[in-house]
Amino acid sequence: xxxxxxxxxxxxxxxxxxxxxAFNKIANSQLVAVMRRDAEKAADYARxxxxxxxxxxxxxxxxxxxxxxxxVATPPDTHxxxxxxxxxxxxxxxxxxxxxxxxxxxxxMNQVSRETGVPLFVAYYRRALPYFVKVRELLEADVIGPxxxxxxxxxxxxxxxxxxxxxxxxxxxxxxxxxxxxxxASHQFDFLxxxxxxxxxxxxxxxxxxxxxxxxxxxxxxxxxxxxVLGAGSWCFTVNKEQRRDETQLIGAKGxxxxxxxxxxxxxxDMQTGREEMDVPFPEHVxxxxxxxxxxxxxxxGTCPSTGATAIQTSKVLDWIxxxx
Length: 325
Description:
By secondary structure, this protein is of the alpha/beta class. The chain is 32% helix and 27% strand.
């Protein structure tokens, strides 16, 4: 492929800043069509972002001859359906995370990719963001020595809408696959596996304590990497704002690296000789570095670190931790 001409299925909030504008800022890439079931909103998005075509029907966008690659940015319950239809039409797919509702759907998507030979990529964009690339570089430089274990803590307060019992699709398991844990911890587990290799064992407990919405709001888990590194984590989404916390620690034989997954506080390196802080700037559109790698791959100029084959491993971990006990 020479020029990558993108169509977006599901031009909602995530596409407004994180991803959508990036398609037109990358060499040999152009956003040419968008789709949303609400025709008025689709037309408005196209107007505001200078997109030539818009649709209210996903199949119409998939069949548009001007579109040769598709970004699926809908909620997870339709990821598999739209990604499979696009691949069957011969069009490479970049799909939002989590990859799908559960591992079985991910495997179905990967099977179609294998059968058709059409590439499938997943928007675990931390694999390409400079902040997280720096964390990986620190490990590769053996700054803290061999990693012994990982500790994750993520605390968030409930939103005002959730407190008034007006929950969004993100906490409706039939649409999202779970709750905030599936939405946020998926990023964390994907990046940790990029750092340390595949997780081969994981177990946990998940509970709906506050009863604000259908999904569980508290998860605790333990996990083991193929390398023997162990990990533990806790995720709570109904604390007060004073208890808000976003911290992942990599504890090594010689020191410790602490970083955030969503608040992007400075990377901390604690050694016997003292502490170093590293501020790494973020691009305007956080998905742009990963999308650039997709474009390079499709043009035969490079590789992409996040594919259906890597992303299914993260879905397996989520399923292991939250499956009914």
